[in-house]
Amino acid sequence: MSPQLELARKLNLLLDVVVAEGNTPYTYRQIEAGLKERGLTLSRARWAYMITGEGPLVTDAALLTGIAEFFRIPPEYMLGSDGDLPDRVDAQLAFVKSLRVARVVNFAARMLGDVSPETLRSITELLQNETGATDSGPPV
Fold first, then answer.
1. How many Å separate Cα 2 from the centre of its chain?
2. Model confidence over 43-63: pLDDT tens digits?
3. Burial class (CB in 10 A: 0-12, 13-18, 19+), 107
4. The model scores a pTM over 0.70
5. How far from 130 is each of 31, 109, 120, 124, 134, CA to CA, in Å?
6. What pLDDT, in 10s, does the model give residues 82-94?
7. Sign (positive/negative) of CA torsion 72, 76, 79, 82?
């Protein structure tokens, strides 16, 4: 994976976590305003190629640190190349995966109608194995 795509992956994970925590997604304007409070500027075009992974690699340490602070994560996550997720991000992503498994199982149960409990358990196990989820998650 290119460094640009890795940065885009990290940014998109952070954006997903905001939603997973029950908030509305951040807009470009909110992020721009948060960075401006830190004395940083971010153009819409630059933000667009940062989150798509297209264009030049952004290596501005001050900007990447500001983005990390905006999302309340350690700056090393944005600056480092080791790919380690902060605990909060990792926990939220695991939760989102378990929610998705639960939604798919519930959808399958409704669509399949009169299906045996063993079949539903098999579907659930298959989905958990595919997503890496460890349990069926909270009821939806």
1. 19
2. 999 999 999 999 899 999 999
3. exposed
4. no
5. 34, 18, 15, 10, 11
6. 556 666 666 766 6
7. negative
